[in-house]
Amino acid sequence: MSPSLSAAPPLTARQAASRIAARQVRELLRWEKAARRGDDPEAVHQMRVQTRRLRAALALFSSVVRPLRRSGRTRLRWLSRALGRVRDLDVIVALLEDGHLAHLDGVEAARLEDLLAALKERRWRAQKKLAASLARGRYEKLKAELRDFARHPRFVGRGAEETMASRYLTDVIHRLARRVSAHRAMAERAPDAADLHELRIAFKRLRYVLDFHAETCGIAFDEERRLSRLLQDCLGAIHDHDVLIEWFAGRHASATPVEAELFAGAWRVLPERLTAGRAKLLRRFLRLRREWLARTEPAGPVVALEAPRFVNLEAAPVQLRLAAPQRTVASLRIVR
Asked: pTM of the predicted model, to two decimals?
């Protein structure tokens, strides 16, 4: 093989932890200016995602890299909450405005327009608070801590530091995959809202580790990543509908007096549309659930992925698969 085609040596868990943490810090700070302006909802979303991915990475690699100091962890949670207050309103407004307003008419359409105006005003106030937070010394201290952490990770030795990153991450993937497959919402015919929300969080954690594996090891569980992303997104949409259904049922403790008045009273069409939309999403979840379980449960009630047996390998990037005796259970891609 020519030098130009030679593969880089595999990363250790320490090296992967350093790379992943540094990347999350860079991505978080990259979206800061746009999130501060407030004219791009995607910037707020991406910045919030990076805070979550960074916290997930710190927990994942706690055996090889010391976490942020307590002050940094506290500030990171504070930032995530500030971003979340804006992002949650963006999601709710988009769901109501893009998904339902055009299907209403008359008085109900006018009521929804008034409600949307109130929610947008609340979003504006949350955005102003976020912009002020990003201009304060507390955030500047967090940025300094994150940059220092990314440049100078503090390693610890607990026996895992020389483990290959691929094995380290694969072990975690198998454990988290077993956990989601064993969750009761993966077996019940009609799982309740609380169980589905809990399952969404479990799939989110699994998805992060699958992404970290792909980013640092040069290989990816392609189908498992795809399914975990689809399941997380579907479960998130179900949760959004559950929140709105609760709001329109009068169970919205955080509503302002104006919003509470706008939510109150009889709505002729909108609650029914939300309920129907939720039912459609649940059917989609059940289909995705079957696909997940069919792929990852060849021999039992929980995931039992076997050790990989490579069945094809060429010099150029090719698609590889992990093969089990009777069922293909995961896919990998080698990339240059």
From this structure: 0.81
